[in-house]
Specification:
The complex is a heterotrimer of chains A (250), B (691) and C (328).
Chain A: E1 2-7, E2 9-11, E3 33-35, H1 37-52, E4 57-64, H2 68-78, E5 82-87, H3 95-106, E6 113-117, H4 128-136, E7 140-150, E8 153-160, E9 163-170, E10 173-177, H5 189-195, E11 200-204, E12 212-218, E13 227-231, H6 236-245
Parallel strand pairs in A: 1-4, 1-6, 4-5, 5-11, 6-10, 7-10
Antiparallel strand pairs in A: 2-3, 7-8, 8-9
Helix pairs in contact in A: 2-5, 3-4
Chain B: H1 3-33, H2 43-55, H3 66-92, H4 104-135, H5 148-174, H6 184-190, H7 198-222, H8 230-240, H9 275-283, H10 289-293, H11 295-298, H12 305-323, H13 333-336, H14 348-353, H15 356-360, H16 363-367, H17 374-378, H18 385-400, H19 408-417, H20 440-445, E1 452-455, H21 457-462, H22 464-479, E2 484-485, H23 496-500, H24 504-520, E3 525-528, H25 531-540, E4 549-552, H26 553-562, E5 576-579, H27 593-602, E6 607-609, H28 638-647, E7 653-656, H29 659-671, E8 677-680, H30 681-686
Parallel strand pairs in B: 1-2, 1-3, 3-4, 5-6, 5-7, 7-8
Helix pairs in contact in B: 1-7, 1-9, 1-12, 2-8, 3-4, 4-5, 5-6, 5-7, 8-9, 9-12, 12-18, 26-27, 28-29
Chain C: E1 3-7, E2 10-11, E3 14-15, H1 17-33, E4 37-43, H2 51-56, E5 61-66, H3 75-87, E6 91-97, H4 100-113, E7 117-121, E8 123-127, E9 130-137, E10 142-148, E11 153-157, E12 172-175, E13 188-194, E14 207-211, H5 221-231, E15 234-238, H6 240-244, E16 265-269, H7 275-281, E17 286-291, H8 298-301, E18 304-307, H9 310-327
Parallel strand pairs in C: 1-4, 1-6, 4-5, 5-12, 6-11, 7-11, 14-15, 14-16, 16-17, 17-18
Antiparallel strand pairs in C: 2-3, 8-9, 9-10
Helix pairs in contact in C: 3-4, 5-9
The chains are: A alpha/beta (250), B mainly alpha (691), C alpha/beta (328).
Chain lengths: 250, 691, 328
């Protein structure tokens, strides 16, 4: 089996972001970057297939500046076979532009399975995987949390609001991975050393026209500082009101 | 030359040849299977250890019952070996006696020493046999721990003593006229032979001599097949131990991750261990002192440091004959048996397919270790069980990425956020807000240099309870007018959790980042309230080129007191305080008194009480070795075991000197529904500052 | 180019609230452009009955696609049918819900049409030829203002951001045949399991009610079970102490060594807030803490705190949530 996994390099989210002077991006100074979580589960899914059938080839593709090589190497350290960097000055926000560049690379690859994370933590748009499938004319199943493959077809579970959907599809197919499918393995030093010697090809990304652009980025208004709203059961009505009107979670 | 003389010479030659053959084989196993390491540095400390731990039996004597008994046997052995030499030489050169070469008073002293020690050893052996056979102390028991070998050895020693005494007594009875007052035992025993003829006495003397001489040779040749090999290896093992001095002794071995062609990181088999670990395994007598003090074992976990040593020896004995081409070798049965059993191979290729990890030692045992060093501290022959555990953990993580799943978030946060918890590094200095504490960057910008750098640590930075410790210590520093700075956002975890959990790669990443930061500011002196930061930066960073004077806050506060820099109010509170020793402060660095002393000076009316296990025998809180980030699902929780002991002292306050101990003991106190306060020593002292 | 397309999501033949939200969002845009709103609804025979409701919320036209093969979600047939309709429909904007279904459908349509799409949009405005939307990025820590220059612009709206508002229009029904044969789709939804029965997983539950040592014993977790049941979409978690004590299974542990969660709402009951616990839940969107010790560290990160006896407060809260849910 031949599997492609498309991964994105994203900043760590455990920090308070600052806006870059340019105004439409976050300040990257001091940010740590790593593989997008959903994408790491996609890599894991591919590697679990490879664990069962060692003849499987797992190819990692990532679009962006040369720094994405570090992220590709991490996937190689986890156990993927080779990597492809689709070089671009920066990762655009336009999902369709990214999808077109990826589809151009994937088109003649002969892949049985093309995996994506459900969405990226930074752009939070969740469109690229399905778009690639559509551009390649392949069946797409998004946001899966369970996967079984048998012969030339597969079945998957999708999480939907308040329930689950069970879907069947033929191969080759494009799948996007949701939380819950697996936990990504931690690369061993042995794998990190081996990854240094694995092939990593660099090609220009064919991004083409972009119709979606970020004009501005800003920080949301500070969350009001936590407060003790009262003592005992008498404070319950106010809590409920705040949950409904201010936090909007009820 | 008589026939007997000729036979004896032949026997001695055969016996020594066979022994030499076996001895060289064991040395060859150790050196060809084990990895090279240097154990000859610092001869002064090594000789000191040899004298104190080896000859003076300092560690043996830590056990109040078995200690003096064993020490008697040991000292007896040393003394009686002089006599043994005389007997063997006598056999080779009939008529030889020390009397011919020693001045009379010295010879008399020699005779007396032989007489007295023979009785002392005999008595000790009798008690030891009684313990083995009748009392059966818990620490001598264990899965497949075999007493047969010990009983055989003790019996041999007993028989040697009996024959030595009868040899003297028959001689005395034959020639009472040449007897002296320096032979009280021979004199006493010779009375029993009163009615015997000269011929019978001579026969008795001859028989005793032959029996003794031959048994010595049998004993010598039995040792390479017995766990009592320590008779031969313990002294060299003590000299070669990795105990070059406080601090350095607990440092994990340096690992060159960039080494050309390096393909093995850490260990999964004996072939990856240093030769000293293999010598350690030869030296283990299975006395169980290590397992008896192991916090994991005490609370019902699978780990037994003794089993680690026995397993290492078993695996060595399984692999080495095959690996060194010793195919005709018959097995060292006793050395290959013991706790945990062997891996059950049926043929050579199965034996080669086995590994120390998994076939002998399981992952579960390795992750149960708190790295508290109690086992190493206790071992009378200076075995380092922790070395093997650490190397196997490294192998698990670096080669196979095998570890309890719950520590993966810690690894990932350490990598991304420089802290084992996923907190924003930007919040590191939040605890200090409003306290007017400059960061290093701010101070440098003002063109100033601090007297010391306060290394806060991740607990002090992010844990709400430990933040109060950081505040208290900062108050102490401010009260003493110490000009200090913190690193704030530039500080990262020192790497100890990653290193102890086997992730050397991650450790070196963190350590090198920190060294880069510290060197950029030209930092020389660091104070910290965290014993893990203290040990790691002070004792292990030098391996990576980071050399700083690192002082734990207990010692530093003591120094401030010595210099009269601390304005204490001198008010007495009649508190009863029990201090809990931190492993990384105590056993790793020998700091036991400073935390106690500082509290006593700050609180003149305080009563310091000690739990039964204190100082170098202190019981771990359960957080070390990365256990802080692991689940504890088997057996009793270590922190509860320790807290119960501390609470039983009746103290009003439990004092700690480590933020991790604070969490564990604090949780233990809550679990007991107790309202006893848990305070860091700096909090105790901060309360006594003049406002 | 002034009309607006809205996808009215249904499930099991019922119109979903977020479907109406899409119509309302479309109505707002159309009011600005002066164009009309075409609401699109698809399903098995009879789905057209919702046309009246859609008209009430502002649909000028209701495009109805009825086919047995559209009984369950049929992504390929829907995407093809919608794409064809939009292509011929002179639309400025097409609006989809950002739901499990909408997030799957919209990118397919966008790719077929070769137009821009932004999901999870919280505000929409027009600017000349372009459409400007607001879209939270970096897990909500940054708000991006994004321009979509394609014609049409595809937008997925975030749930609960566009409150359905009545704005009655004609709602002329236009029946349309699906493109291709919906029964021949490569992707087949075999089964849909809804609600009940399956316990909500901590990782997925929008609301988590979690208990600590303050609960005093396993039997008192009934209080939290009740509160979770009142929310309806909640799971019950616990601290390490609780799972160590065996009051709850280890799989329920939230924290560094257990589950790392970030639900919409986290209710911490009798939890002091040890670092090990905070590390596992501090990214929750809204945190409520109930604890008797007002110095407890949990109050430092809680949005709303109540100091007091949890045994008194929790039952009152349960009743209040139940009542609010029954009203809403």
């Amino acid at each position: 089996m031949k599997i492609a996994v498309c991964i994105k390099r994203v900043p760590d989210m455990d920090v308070r972001f600052k806006i870059a002077p340019i105004g439409n991006a976050v300040d990257e100074a001091g940010l740590k970057f790593d593989m997008n979580d959903f994408d790491s589960w996609a890599v894991e899914a591919a590697l679990q297939i490879k664990d069962k059938d060692s003849a499987t080839e797992v190819v990692i593709i990532s679009l962006g500046p040369d720094s994405v090589q570090e992220t590709i190497r991490k996937a190689l350290a986890m156990g993927a076979d080779r990597g492809v960097e689709l070089k671009a000055d920066r990762i655009p926000f336009d999902g369709l532009a990214i999808a077109r560049a990826l589809a151009a690379e994937l088109k003649d690859g002969g892949f049985d399975l093309i995996l994506f994370g459900k969405q990226s933590a930074d752009s939070s748009n969740g469109v690229v995987g399905a778009m690639v499938g559509e551009l390649l004319g392949l069946p797409v199943v998004t946001a899966i949390s369970k996967l079984e493959l048998a012969g030339g077809s597969g079945s998957a579970k999708r999480e939907i609001e308040g329930g689950q959907e069970f879907v069947e599809f033929p191969l080759p197919a494009v799948l996007t991975i949701d939380q819950g499918l697996n936990t990504a393995r931690y690369p061993a030093l042995k794998g990190i050393m081996a990854a240094k010697k694995k092939p990593l090809e660099v090609k220009p990304a064919q991004l083409g026209e972009q119709t979606v652009t970020v004009l501005k980025m800003e920080l949301p208004p500070e969350r009001p500082a936590g407060r003790i709203i009262g003592e005992g059961a008498a404070a319950v009505p106010e809590l409920l009101a705040l949950l409904q009107t201010e936090a909007k979670v009820l | 030359m008589t026939v007997g003389h000729g036979i004896f010479i032949l026997i001695v030659v055969l016996a020594l040849s066979f022994f030499s053959y076996n001895a060289q084989r064991l040395v060859r196993y150790m050196m060809s299977i084990g990895q090279p390491e240097i154990r000859t540095d610092d001869p002064v400390t090594r000789l000191k250890n040899l004298f104190l731990i080896g000859l003076a039996q300092k560690k043996i004597l830590r056990d109040a019952v078995a200690g003096p008994l064993h020490a008697s046997v040991f000292w007896g052995f040393v003394v009686l070996t002089v006599g043994t030499a005389e007997i063997i030489v006598q056999g080779l050169f009939p008529g030889f006696t020390y009397a011919a070469i020693l001045p009379a008073p010295l010879y008399d002293f020699y005779i007396l020493s032989q007489e007295l020690f023979a009785v002392l050893v005999l008595a000790a052996v009798a008690v030891l046999l009684y313990r083995r056979i009748i009392v059966k102390p818990r620490r001598l028991q264990g899965d497949k721990v075999h007493s047969g070998d010990a009983i055989l050895i003790l019996s041999m020693i007993g028989a040697l003593m009996v024959s030595l005494i009868t040899l003297g007594a028959f001689g005395f009875a034959l020639h009472p006229e040449s007897g002296t007052i320096f032979q009280p035992v021979s004199l006493a025993v010779s009375h029993a032979f009163g009615g015997l003829s000269a011929g019978t006495l001579e026969l008795g003397r001859e028989t005793s001599w032959w029996f003794h001489a031959l048994l010595i040779l049998v004993f010598l040749n039995y040792l390479p097949y017995s766990k009592h090999l320590h008779v031969l290896t313990s002294l060299p093992n003590t000299y070669l131990a990795n105990t070059s001095g406080p601090g350095v002794k607990g440092a994990m071995s340096y690992m060159d991750l960039e080494a050309e062609g390096a393909e093995q990181f850490g260990a999964s088999d004996v072939t990856h261990l240093g030769w000293k670990s293999l010598l350690d395994s030869y030296s283990c007598t299975e006395c169980g002192r290590c397992t008896a003090v192991c916090p994991a074992n005490i609370t019902g976990k699978l780990l037994s440091p003794r089993k680690i040593m026995i397993n290492t020896r078993q695996r060595l004995m399984e692999l080495a004959p095959l690996a060194t081409g010793d195919f005709g070798e018959f097995e060292h049965h006793t050395l290959a048996a013991g706790e945990g059993g062997d891996a059950g191979h049926s043929n050579g290729s199965a034996a080669l397919g086995n590994t120390l990890l998994d076939n002998y030692i399981t992952e579960e045992e390795l992750w149960a270790c708190t790295s508290c060093r109690a086992c190493v501290e206790e071992c009378p022959v200076s075995i380092d069980q922790l070395d093997i555990i650490n190397e196997l953990r490294r192998g698990l993580v670096l080669m196979e990425s095998r570890f309890p799943p719950e520590i993966q978030p810690a690894f990932e946060s350490l990598e991304k956020n420089g802290s084992p918890w996923a907190f924003d590094p930007g919040d590191r200095a939040k605890w200090a807000e409003g306290m007017d504490i400059p960061t290093m960057a701010e101070m440098v910008e003002r063109g100033e240099r601090p007297e010391v750098l306060f290394w806060v640590g991740c607990m002090g930075s992010f844990d709400d309870r430990a933040k109060k410790i950081a505040v208290a210590f900062a108050r102490v520093l401010q009260a003493a007018n110490v000009k200090f700075a913190i690193l704030g956002q530039e500080e990262k975890c020192n790497g100890d959790p990653a290193r102890r959990m086997g992730n050397e790669y991650l450790y070196q990443m963190l350590a090198r980042d920190n060294i880069e930061t510290l060197d950029r500011y030209g930092v020389e002196t660091i104070v910290t309230n965290c014993p893990h930061c203290f040990h790691q930066i002070g004792n292990e960073y030098p391996q990576l080129g980071g050399n700083y004077d690192v002082i734990h806050h207990s010692t530093y506060i003591e120094k401030l007191m010595d210099e009269n820099r601390l304005p204490l109010n001198g008010e007495g509170k009649a508190l009863t305080v029990a201090y809990h020793d931190s492993c990384y402060l105590g056993r790793y660095n020998g700091i036991y008194e400073a935390p106690r002393e500082t509290m006593k000076r700050a609180l003149p009316m305080m009563t310091l009480v000690e739990p039964p296990r204190n100082r170098s025998k202190g019981l771990c809180c359960g957080a070390g070795g990365g256990r802080m980030w692991m689940e504890e699902t088997v057996g009793k929780r270590i922190n509860v075991e320790r807290t119960e002991e501390l609470l039983a002292t009746g103290a009003d306050v439990l004092a700690v000197a480590c933020p991790f101990c604070m969490t564990m003991i604090g949780d233990g106190v809550k679990a007991q529904d107790s309202s006893v306060q848990v305070l860091d020593i700096s909090e105790v002292i901060a309360q006594q500052l003049v406002h | 180019m002034a009309n607006v397309f809205a996808f009215a999501e249904t499930r099991n033949g019922d119109l979903r609230k977020i479907g109406l939200e899409a119509v309302t969002a479309a109505r707002n845009v159309a009011d600005e452009t002066g164009g009309s709103v075409d609401a699109f609804i698809a399903g098995a025979a009879g789905i057209g009955a919702h046309a009246e409701q859609l008209a009430k919320y502002g649909a000028d036209t209701v495009i109805v696609v009825e086919h047995a093969g559209l009984d369950k979600y049929n992504p390929e047939a829907l995407a093809a049918t919608i794409a064809e309709r939009i292509r011929g429909g002179n639309y400025r904007v097409a609006i989809f819900p950002t739901s499990a279904l909408g997030s799957d459908l919209a990118p397919r349509v966008a790719a077929k049409l070769g137009v821009g799409l932004v999901n999870d949009v919280t505000a929409i405005k027009l600017d000349g030829d372009a459409v400007i939307v607001e879209h939270p990025v970096n897990i909500g820590k940054v708000i991006a203002t994004v321009k979509i220059a394609s014609q049409p612009a595809l937008i997925g709206i975030r749930a609960n951001m566009f409150t359905p508002a009545e704005a009655p229009r004609a709602g002329t029904v236009e029946k349309v045949e699906p493109v291709g044969d919906p029964s021949a789709s490569r992707i087949v939804v075999k089964e849909v399991k809804l609600g009940g029965g399956t316990k909500l997983d901590l990782g997925e539950a929008p609301v988590i009610v979690s208990g600590g040592r303050g609960l005093k014993g396993p039997e008192n977790f009934k209080l939290l079970e009740d509160l979770a049941a009142a929310f309806g979409n909640a799971a019950v978690g616990a601290t390490r102490v609780v799972t160590d004590e065996g009051w709850r299974p280890h799989s329920d542990q939230i924290g560094q060594t257990g589950r790392l969660v970030s639900p919409q709402l986290y209710v911490a009951v009798g939890i002091s807030g040890a670092i090990q616990h905070l590390a596992g839940m501090r990214t929750s969107r809204t945190i409520v803490a109930i604890n008797k010790d007002k110095e407890a560290p949990i109050f430092k990160i809680a949005d709303y705190g109540i100091v007091g006896d949890l045994f008194e407060i929790v039952p009152v809260l349960t009743a209040a949530v139940k009542e609010a849910k029954s009203r809403g």
